[in-house]
Amino acid sequence: MVDIREVPEADIDRALELAYLVFHDRPEKAARERHHALLLRCDRIGAYDGDVLVGFMAAHDLRLSVPGADLPCPGLTFVCVAPTHRRRGVLTGMMTRMMRRAGEAGRPIAALWASEAAIYGRFGYGGATTGATVEIDSTRPLALRIDPDRRPLRLVDPEDAVDVIGPFHEAARAGRPGRPGRSPERWRDEWLTEQDEEDEELSPPRIIVLGDPGEPIAGYVIYRTKPADDGGAARSPGLVRVDELEADTPAVAAALWECVAALDLTGKVSAWGRPADDPLLHFAADRDQVRVTAQFPALWLRLLDVRAALTARSWAAPVELVLEVHDARLPDNAGRFRLKAGPHGATYGHADGPADLALDVRELAACYLGGTRITELVAAGLVQEHTPGAAAALDDALRTPVLPHTGDEF
Ligand SMILES: CC(C)(COP(=O)(O)OP(=O)(O)OC[C@H]1O[C@@H](n2cnc3c(N)ncnc32)[C@H](O)[C@@H]1OP(=O)(O)O)[C@@H](O)C(=O)NCCC(=O)NCCS
Fold first, then answer.
1. Does ligand 1 come within 6 angstroms of the Cβ of 19?
2. If you placed Cys at 56, which of 15, 95, 105, 374 could pair as Cys (CB 3.0 to 4.6 Å)?
3. Which residues form the active site (predicted)?
């Protein structure tokens, strides 16, 4: 009989050993210490078979930008079940406990990044943002259709980065839904570590900001580099891996992309997890030089309290309709509800009349940040439209000026 309960501090190292086992990982001492410190700051739930820890899950205490608001949002991480106990409902037990607890604590949404896309839909999570991998052939200067901002660029020491770029990142978050806030610890331990956890050949992080001296910065780029590999047939050019690039204006973004593409002794820029509507894809003059090489579901979102989530966000256009919501895990969300929303806010309460749209809570989660259209899900047979035009009306109301996006994998 497996017992689901909180994991005390004394068991954190056992939880880490379990995670390293299932993720086929053997991190260095410094990374283990970082993981330990991270788990100390997280909510922790474990599955115990007697005294043996056979399942584990942690949740960061995050805030997530949603249209017009910033909501408390547990960010699930380190989800793992021992190979001896898989497919017996251990994950289901931990997830149910985590979702109930977060809902009771007044957190309307939860989020995670999935190692496999097939796992979390059954728990009501929907893929809410898309990431794109963008590669630049930087063996020649980056060709641009706009003039880059010519204010000065300067390097920032990673030690000072949180103070210099932290406030800029926090302000930029409000401009795009789907972005988690970062504590100084998350900045330090997940973005600015000397050694990259996935590729030890990469340099430490380098940070370049743009702006006049004494003025607030207008943008920044965080990148790491790897020297060219000249050996044998598998020659590869020096690489610039862009971890994050934020800019106030397209001209600032152009200057920062131009700068990383011009780094000496490199011939390729690779930026993982860019937004699908990245302005770079429009202002690059040669789309053979700047290519999207992959697209993938990024942040998975769960509406734990649908009413609280829908009434907290802003709405782009007026809409009034009855939703029939299915939620197999959290019954308070299930039923027929009248949504009345518009630029001045929203109400959401039980309704008696027939439904205009019927959908599962995972579909609502996929559309909540504005990254998926209800009409697409109607076309896919996943949402039932009982009143013609209802899906398009809801799409108009959910729409956001830019696509939701985050490259902040936790
Ligand atoms: C993924 C993992 C946590 C699942 O744990 P588990 O205890 O075996 O899951 P459960 O028994 O509660 O499974 C619940 C359901 O999800 C399904 N499921 C579980 N893992 C799945 C996967 N990787 N792909 C597809 N379906 C999966 C199960 O078949 C089951 O389906 P059912 O309800 O129709 O019977 C576990 O296999 C694991 O630790 N994997 C390695 C680490 C990992 O990938 N973690 C996720 C990080 S985001």
1. no
2. 15
3. 120, 410
In sequence order, the β-bridge partners of residue 95 are none
Q: Is 376 helix (H, G, I), strand (E, B) or coil?
A: helix
Q: Read off the pLDDT of residues 103-144 as tens digits, 9 standing for 90 and up.
A: 889 999 999 999 999 999 999 999 999 999 999 999 999 999
Domain with CATH 3.40.630.30 in the chain: 2-107, 131-296
Name the helix (H) or strand (E) containing 90: helix 90-104
pLDDT per position as a tens digit, 175-220: 999 999 999 999 998 899 999 988 989 999 999 999 999 999 999 9
**Does the annotation mark 20 as catalytic?**
no
Q: Is the CB of 81 under 6 A from ligand 1?
A: yes
Instruction: Work out whether strand 43-49 and strand 52-66 pair parallel, antiparallel, or are unpaired.
Output: antiparallel
The answer to whether residue 371 scores a pLDDT higher than 90 is yes
Query: 139 CB under 6 A from ligand 1?
Result: no
- Ligand 1 atom nearest 23 alpha carbon: 42
22 lines ligand 1 (CB under 6 A): yes
410 belongs to the catalytic site: yes
69, 346 in Cβ contact below 8 A? Answer: no
Q: Does domain 2-107 match CATH 1.10.3720.10?
A: no
Query: Which ligand 1 atom lies nearest to the CA of residue 94?
Result: 12
Is there an atom of ligand 1 within 6 Å of 90 CB?
A: yes
Ranges in the chain annotated CATH 3.30.1050.10: 305-398
Atom index in ligand 1 nearest the CA of residue 115 equals 48
Reference 363, options 289, 300, 308, 280; nearest CA is 300
Minimum CA distance residue for ligand 1 atom 18 = 119
Asked whether the beta carbons of 351 and 322 are under 8 A apart, the reply is yes
- Token duo for residue 114: 């999935």
Give the residue-averaged pLDDT of 333-344. 97
Q: What CATH number should be reported for the domain whose range is 131-296?
A: 3.40.630.30
Give pLDDT tens digits for 50-62: 999 999 999 999 9
